[in-house]
Amino acid sequence: MDICVFGAGSLGSLIGGLLADTHEVTLVGRDPHVGVVDTKGLCLSGAVDRHVSPTGRTAVPQAADLGVVTVKSFDTSVAARELATADLDAVLSLQNGMGNEAALATRLDSPVLAGTCTYGARLRDPGHVECSGLGEVVLGAREGGESALADRVGTAFDDGGLATTVSTEMPRRLWEKLTVNAGINAATALARVPNGALTDDPGASVTRRAAREAARVARTQGVSVDADEAAKQAVAVADATARNRSSMLQDIEAGRRTEIAAINGYVVEHASQPVPVNETLTALVRTWEAEHGHLES
Ligand SMILES: NC(=O)C1=CN([C@@H]2O[C@H](COP(=O)(O)OP(=O)(O)OC[C@H]3O[C@@H](n4cnc5c(N)ncnc54)[C@H](OP(=O)(O)O)[C@@H]3O)[C@@H](O)[C@H]2O)C=CC1
Ligand SMILES: CC(C)(CO)C(=O)C(=O)O
C-alpha cells in the first residue's frame, strides 16, 4: 500500500516508520526532520529499535492509496486543504480530540476513516523518533458500521506489524477516548504533574468529574457512553500511564499551543447543560495560552 503520513512529527513519524518496511511510506512534515529522513533514513528507538527508509517531503505527493493525518487538531483544516491537492483513495485520522474527521470530510472527496492511537511517540532529533510506549490503533468508518475500506486499511496496518483493531463503533470509541483525555490532559497540564498524580484524590476527583461531564455530553449527541464507566476508565488510564507526562503537559512545558479546543473545549461547546469542570479547565488552559501568545486559540 502507498501511504502518505501527513504531519510527520512525533506520532506520524513513528506510525510511518513502523509501516515503512512493509509499505511505500512518504512522511510529509517539516525540515530539517523530513530532509534527514529522505537522505539518511529514520531511526526508531525506545520500545522499538529499527532503522527504516521512508521518503521524506515537505509537501503532499500527487497521489497515495492512503493519507494518514497526524497533525495537531488545530492544524486539521490547513492539512485538509493541502491533502485536497492529492489523489487519495482514503484518509485516516489518528489524532486526539473531536471534530478532526468531520473537518477532513467536509474538505476532501476521499472517504475519511476515524482512528484512535495509544502508541506513545516523541520526536527526539531530526531523523530520530522514540517510541515511548507500545499501544494499539483502532480504526473504522467515522460514522460507525461495517466498512470494507476499514478492513483493507486494518489488514495493511496488521501486515505492517501495528496492533490494530477494526471497529464498527468509532463514534463511541472516539468519545470514550475524549472522556479519557478530558479527564487527564488539562488537569495534568495545569498542575504540572505526571498522569499518576490523578489516581488519588484530590486529582482523581477532577478527573472523574471531567470524564463524567464528557460522557453526559456524548449521550446528548446520541452516543452511548456510561458516565460512571468513563470516570473509572479515565482514572485507570492515568494509573496505567502513571509516568507519562500527558501531551498537553508536554505542550505547556514547551510553550506550545495545546489541543484544549478539541478536548475539554469540545465538551463545553457541545454541552446543552452546564459542564463546570470542563468549563474551568478550558478557561484556565486558554488563560495560559493567551499569556503565551497563542491568542488564535
Ligand atoms: N505523540 C503521541 O504520543 C501521540 C499523539 N497523538 C495525537 O496525534 C496528533 C499529533 O501529535 P504529535 O505527533 O505529538 O504532534 P507533533 O507536533 O509532534 O506532530 C505534528 C507535525 O505536523 C507538522 N505539520 C503541521 N501542519 C503541517 C503542514 N501543513 N505541512 C507539513 N507539516 C505540518 C507539525 O509541524 P509544525 O509544528 O512546525 O507546524 C509537526 O511537526 C495530536 O492530535 C496528538 O494529540 C495521539 C496519541 C499519541
Ligand atoms: C492517554 C493520554 C493522557 C496518555 O498520556 C494521552 O492520550 C495524551 O497524553 O494525550
UniProtKB/TrEMBL annotation:
SUPFAM superfamilies: 6-phosphogluconate dehydrogenase C-terminal domain-like, NAD(P)-binding Rossmann-fold domains. Residues 172-287 form the Ketopantoate reductase C-terminal domain. It is an enzyme of class 1 (oxidoreductase). Residues 3-143 form the Ketopantoate reductase N-terminal domain. Keywords: Coenzyme A biosynthesis, NADP, Oxidoreductase. Its EC number is 1.1.1.169. The keyword Oxidoreductase applies. GO terms for molecular function: 2-dehydropantoate 2-reductase activity; NADP binding. It comes from the Archaea. InterPro entries: 6-PGluconate_DH-like_C_sf, 6PGD_dom2, ApbA, Ketopantoate_reductase, KPA_reductase, KPR_N, NAD(P)-bd_dom_sf. Pathway: Cofactor biosynthesis; coenzyme A biosynthesis. One of its GO terms (biological process) is coenzyme A biosynthetic process. It catalyses: (R)-pantoate + NADP(+) = 2-dehydropantoate + NADPH + H(+); (R)-pantoate + NAD(+) = 2-dehydropantoate + NADH + H(+). GO terms for cellular component: cytoplasm. Catalyzes the NAD(P)H-dependent reduction of ketopantoate into pantoic acid. Catalyzes the NADPH-dependent reduction of ketopantoate into pantoic acid. Belongs to the ketopantoate reductase family. This is 2-dehydropantoate 2-reductase.
